[in-house]
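Lab notebook: predicted structure, single chain.

Context: the supervisor wants predicted structures on file for every construct in the current expression panel, including those that have not yet been purified. This is the next one on the list. No modifications to the sequence; it matches the entry in the shared construct table.
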Amino acid sequence: MSADSQNSASRLSIAVVCYNTAREELVVLLESILNSIQHSGLQAEPGSVPVYLIDNSEHESLDVAIFADYENKASELGVKFTLLLGHGNIGYGSAHNLVLEKLESDYHLILNPDIELDENCLQAGLQFMDAHPETLMASPHARYADDEKQYLCKRYPSVLTFFLRGFLPHSIGRLFRRRLAFYEMRDLAEDAPTVGIPIVSGCFMFCRSAALKQLAGFDENYFLYFEDFDLSLRLGRLGKIAYEPAMRIRHAGGNAARKSGPHLRMFIRSGIRFFNTHGWRIFRQAS
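Prediction complete. Output recorded below exactly as produced.
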């Protein structure tokens, strides 16, 4: 597998940003990507489905050997694995933007490394996006490893909501469950897509490549946190964002606000930038 390459036109491209990610976690992700591509019905030419693994680790912890066990299956499916490394920790959005100029795909999937795709996930995403040209991005039905539902779609937040959700004990937070459920769009239908979602999580963003390139991808002023909120709102001005429950994933990630030390400071810094850019809501949530 090459360390870098130029792609021929394709239906789908995929990018994953890693930071000191365990190989065991990547094995689960890579296997699920290949299985989902296999079930997607893609008629792929050799090398026409680029899958980028972008390593943000300061000390290079990955090499192309990570792909060795998958070379035969990847070749059969038209998948070309590419590893990008050596740039250091440039931030989540900036790392994803490294592949923007390479994209010649119809759709580009942005992923976290702690994701496992259902085998029918990509097929559902491709079918939905093909049928809804006004939709520029779609978000999936997600569950934690323990099968608890995870809510990746959000309404525009208030500062109070973030404080309640991220910093108060659960025993107190339960007093505000209606507010938090409203913010997390827990009322979304699970038997049909919903179009008109304001914000989706950056752990899984199924995007139209042309729209992503039109916006120059993520705003690189966000090092970590809120870059997905910002991108969602900017894409939402160009077209529609949807929740497609037929796309199903497992996501090991947790509540980004429940951090300490440097991550907490980054979260607060990025939150201030987000509200300065898109408008402050202290107590009132968007309807």
